[in-house]
Design goal:
Order of helices and strands: EHEHEHEHEHEEEEHEHHE
Number of helices: 8
Bound molecules: NADP nicotinamide-adenine-dinucleotide phosphate
Mean pLDDT: 97
Strand content: 15-25%
Helix content: 40-55%
Largest sheet: 7 strands, parallel
Distance between the termini: 38 Å
Length: 256
């Protein structure tokens, strides 16, 4: 795994920014996408200091036309070896709600799921023509363990897991690799809106290192840290009453 042209959505912060910094080196071209121009510029400056050439775009990931146009132009100049589809939001029930409202659920699914699929389709034609490329989809351990406090978030990540593994199989003979990454709790800006316990939280640098290692080994699916990953997998198999009991201590609500 020695990508020369990398596009990262959600490159302005957290896991995406840590990945950009770890992949940055001379002769690497990075396309960093996000909404916050100041934070994007800060990440780009760190990457440039390591010798990478950076291009940034402040575009809402749901703006499919602008995202596709930006990625197509970048791909024309620097054929994308690695796409990290990482942008995402966490939203769910507020302290005074039993369940998140419908508008919240829709926004989460549009951002985390539909926009991610659109981003992938923006780079697929180029990768297919070259019969080369690697796609990393950042899902979550929530893909494996339904969240009563953020059901749409968990659903978006479960759908990404299924989508990514299906895509990997579909593209297996096209020279394109796909990996789904399922992080547990990571200390990023997202943590600030998750008001509740965050057992086993790791740094964004550690999360990025796990993702790079998974790509290097061409894994289909990675989950980390190991104990929360296996706990989440087991949870899915448990009878409902037992799952409710063992996950009671991880209930949370979302703050603004
Ligand atoms: N932190 C965790 O505990 C955790 C656990 C499991 C999975 N994940 C997943 O990891 C990924 C990265 O999250 P993070 O933890 O690094 O959180 P973060 O620091 O909040 O980063 C989220 C990134 O997504 C971008 N983003 C969000 N909504 C967007 C939109 N509508 N249009 C364009 N960009 C948008 C943000 O850009 P701007 O800030 O510039 O708007 C930011 O760069 C997400 O998919 C998240 O679900 C996180």
């Amino acid at each position: 795994m020695d990508p020369r042209a990398v596009a990262i959505t959600g490159g302005s912060s957290g896991i995406g920014a840590a990945l950009a910094r770890q992949l940055a080196k001379p002769d690497v071209h990075l396309a960093l996408l996000g909404r916050d121009p100041t934070r994007l510029a800060g990440v780009a400056s760190d990457c440039q200091a390591k010798g990478a050439v950076c291009r940034t775009a402040t575009i809402d990931v749901r703006d499919t036309a602008r995202i596709s146009a930006f990625l197509a132009e970048f791909d024309k100049e620097h054929p994308i070896d690695l796409l990290v589809a990482n942008a995402g939001v966490l939203d769910g029930r507020r302290a005074d709600q039993v369940v998140e409202d419908g508008a919240t659920a829709r926004r989460v699914l549009e951002t985390n799921l539909l926009a991610t699929i659109d981003v992938i389709h923006s780079v697929l034609p180029g990768m297919r023509a070259r019969r080369a490329g690697h796609i990393a989809i950042v899902a979550s351990l929530a893909a494996l363990n339904p969240l009563p406090d953020a059901p749409a978030y968990a659903a978006s990540k479960a759908a990404l897991l299924s989508y990514g593994l299906g895509l990997r199989e579909a593209l297996a003979n096209e020279g394109i690799k796909v990996m789904v990454a399922c992080p547990g709790f990571v200390a990023t800006a997202m943590a600030r809106v998750h008001l509740g316990p965050r057992p086993g939280e790791i740094s964004s640098e550690t999360a990025a290192a796990h993702i790079i290692e998974g790509l290097e080994h061409d894994r289909s699916l990675i989950g980390f840290p190991p104990i929360p990953y296996w706990f989440s997998r087991l949870c899915l198999l448990m009878p409902e009453a037992l799952r409710r009991k063992v996950t009671r201590g991880t209930r949370f609500h979302v703050g603004t």
